[in-house]
Write a structure and sequence with these properties.
The complex is a heterodimer of chains A (111) and B (115). In chain A, 0% of the residues lie in helices and 45% in strands. Chain A is mainly beta and 111 residues long. Chain B has 115 residues and is mainly beta. Classes of the chains: A mainly beta (111), B mainly beta (115). Chain A binds chain B through residues 38, 41-46, 49, 87, 93-96, 98-104, and chain B through 4, 31, 33, 35, 42-45, 48, 50, 55-56, 59, 89, 91, 93, 95, 98-109, 111.
Chain lengths: 111, 115
């Protein structure tokens, strides 16, 4: 798995968009970018993943740069319940590969 | 469709006792992964199992820890002769058989406290 780098923590005002950056400059051509989050000691929750195209689902949007060396997770309208640790992971998409979690970004959504 | 289930949710053991943690994967999932999260730290991979096979145990401590995923029943993570350093949250995840675009779904975790 490629190494990823994320800021340690970020703040966001409730109702505003939260933009969480991730650097993965050593990502290989067949590795996907995955995002998970962990809300206060709960089990990690899958958010979204992508290879090279931007992706959107009901939870978030994922913007991947053209050179694939970085990406941004966007929570369009952050709520207090989005306060969590967000993990960016670069890994293969097939086979039973383990997920290597880094330290993640601790997002604080404030009222 | 029930999610990944883990039990017990909280487990207290005295030093030297055995801890058995159970994980029932999502219906139709035949791959199970165990992770450990020490207080204030990130998740660390421990072991990956398919039914009746250990595929990758590179994250398992060499002693006292073992895991199984029998043909029938839940996956079991067993810790023998627990020590205080084993106190942590243990998460199980499951995924379907290998194919493109699969996900790992995590359970709520078992919090082990060793006194």
């Amino acid at each position: 798995d490629a190494k990823t780098t994320q800021p340690t923590s970020m703040d966001c005002a409730e109702g505003r968009a939260a933009n969480l950056p991730c650097n993965h400059s050593t990502i290989s051509g067949n590795e996907y970018v995955y995002w998970y989050r962990q809300i206060h000691s709960q089990g990690p929750q899958y958010i979204i993943h992508g290879l090279k195209n931007n992706e959107t689902n009901e939870m978030a949007s994922l913007i991947i740069t053209e050179d694939r060396k970085s990406s941004t997770l966007i929570l369009p309208h952050a709520t207090l319940r989005d306060t969590a640790v967000y993990y960016c992971i670069a890994r293969l998409n097939t086979g039973g590969f383990k997920t290597i979690f880094g330290a993640g970004t601790r997002l604080f959504v404030k009222a | 469709n029930a999610g990944v289930m883990q039990n017990p949710r909280h487990l207290v053991r005295r030093r030297g006792q055995e801890a058995r943690l159970r994980c029932s994967p999502m219906k139709g999932h035949s791959h199970v992964y165990w992770y450990r999260q020490l207080p204030e730290e990130g998740l660390k991979f421990m072991v990956y199992l398919q039914k009746e096979n250990i595929i990758d145990e590179s994250g398992m401590p060499k002693e006292r820890f073992s895991a199984e995923f029998p043909k029938e029943g839940p996956s079991i993570l067993r810790i023998q002769q627990v020590v205080r350093g084993d106190s942590a949250a243990y998460f199980c995840a499951s995924s379907p058989a290998p194919r493109a675009t699969y996900e790992q779904y995590f359970g709520p975790g078992t919090r082990l406290t060793v006194t």
